[in-house]
Amino acid sequence: MRSGVLAAASLLGACAVIRAPEVTLSAPATPPAWQVIQPARLDLQTDTGAANDAANNLAGWWQALHDPALNKLLQAVLANNPSMQSSGISYRLAELKAGVVNAGYGPKANAGISSSQSSPLGESGHSSSHSLSLSASWELDLWGARSAQRQQAQASVLRAGQEVRAAQVSLLAETVQAYISLRIAQANQQLAAQTIELRAQSHDLVRWEYQAGLKTELEQNQALTLLRQAEAVAPQHEQSRLLALQQLAALLGGESTEALKPLAEPGAIPEFQGPQSLRIPADVLRQRPDVLAQELAVQEQAQSVALARISRLPSFGLSGSIGTSSDLFADIFDVDAAVARLAGSLSALLFDGGVQRSNVKQSRLLLDQALLAYRSKLLTAQQEVEAALTQLETARRQQLSYQQALDAAEQAAELALFQYDAGLLDFSDLLTTQTALISARSSLLGNRSTILGSWIQLYRSLGGGWQNLPLPATAFAMGDTNE
Question: What superkingdom does the record give (predicted)?
């Protein structure tokens, strides 16, 4: 019998391995060069040196803001953000599941010992029975199912790791954007205070002249209207400041208030010009963590197709056992009394109404769907990069004009006040000049906010930020548990 079992195992072991279908991950056509504006330029390169430059440019991009308060804030957010900790747990779960898959195909062994006593009814005395058994079983991997499941589990672990990276990219960009929003809101508050002061000076001036009979009530009411309108705008900027602080508190997990204390006081808006030459490899979009995660999802599904095909094929298993039994407990350890058994089993599906065939078709359709999702993810990534570049180019072209407009408005406001004091300018013209000055200040501040937001979005769309960061500590916190 033993020779027959081994012969069958050898014959079936020569069967062909079922492999996952080959998939082609095609990327959408990208422009040969993505240009921001001179002197800053984003060029797509293909050489290894360009790839290294790209990694250096993308890693730690927020450090170009040269803001120590922001750097401390980002460290606190990465350490305390609940979503980031949850991503770390998901990664650890994927590792544990992969370990279960790898162990599932190994041989299984069991040991048992039993004792029993029986007494016939109405009779004296009793009889005892004792047994000891050792058994092992192993399902042979005839078609490569073990390899397919291992590759699928490994792809799952890698995908979970890329999802952690994608979460880091999003979290970093979201935190920097919230920080910029806070600084912009504080700057708007200061601008609103300057506006109120300017409008109050004009109102006081015309009020004194009205009391002296030199101005009309209409002119006094015009100045008062502009003053009250300026006062009405101030609470909006206070609301924006509080919303930004609340968002940062949420990103910190609602617990780390120490990191927010330095931010309560107004601070300077960071200056971020960006690199003068940003060289990016041609396949930069495929290096984004979320795109890589989708690519690994395709690999997982490809292995699912192989496993669905294997499930329709015969399976072969080996089992063996060694057991003893005796009326005396001490005799169950007698080797001479042991009985050994070796058995092989072959099973094949004959008819299931087409369930397995349908599963194969379903798995292939899911593979096609995963490929489409991958392509869609790439197209979305490309659109995000192009949108950020377009917005950045527009805002940077406007920057010089806004600055020149502010310089001219400040000179005009000084001249208008001088001419008004000299009696050469009407009060309404003075108010118009001051309104132009207020608008120029607000426009330049809005332009700075747009430029900073565009840089943040550009680095986020390029998948920058995670390169020098470790995975969350929670991803490994359970590694030594004995439970």
Answer: Bacteria
